[in-house]
From TrEMBL:
This is Exonuclease domain-containing protein. Residues 1-143 form the Exonuclease domain. It comes from Euphydryas editha (Edith's checkerspot). Keywords: Hydrolase, Nuclease. PANTHER family: RNA EXONUCLEASE REXO1 / RECO3 FAMILY MEMBER-RELATED. GO terms for molecular function: exonuclease activity; nucleic acid binding.
Length: 143
């Protein structure tokens, strides 16, 4: 089972407006710290899920939501968002066209279209969020 551990939201300019760890509701047996970068102490000092969920719901209400495989994030937060206001890079046809219609990893999209290396070592949700926004900004007028 996977649990929500961290939420990061950036604005249209890539500035972090929310970055919070989430206190786990179950016992964690493997933090996958070598990949996630998340330690037990990060989550012990995290916020309650309901508080983080409400903050996210308030921030994204009425906004265009940009991300990669957004359904995973929304499912983890137990939220929904209108499809018309979602810009999912994993479903964007000009990106998937290069991969036989399948989603292309965010790491690959950042390297190909931004010339940027991300997810090199531990995962950083702020780095991912900024890369998503920068990718969207390169294509927003053609979306």
């Amino acid at each position: 089972m996977s649990l929500l551990a961290r939420v990061t939201i950036v604005d249209e300019n890539g500035r972090v407006i929310l970055d919070e760890y989430v206190k786990p509701s179950y016992v964690i047996t493997d933090y996958r710290s070598c990949y996630s970068g998340i330690k037990k102490s990060d989550l012990e000092n995290g916020s309650d899920f309901s508080i983080v969920r409400n903050k996210v719901a308030n921030l994204i209400n009425g906004c265009i939501l940009v991300g990669h495989s957004l359904h995973f994030d929304l499912d983890a937060l137990k939220l929904s968002h209108p499809d018309s206001n979602c810009r999912d890079l994993a479903k964007y046809e000009p990106f998937t066209r290069t991969n036989g219609g399948q989603p292309v990893a965010l790491k690959t999209l950042a390297r190909l279209y931004l010339g940027r290396t991300i997810q090199d070592g531990v995962h950083n949700s702020a780095e991912d969020a900024k890369a998503c926004m920068d990718l969207y900004r390169t294509r927003r007028y053609n979306w």
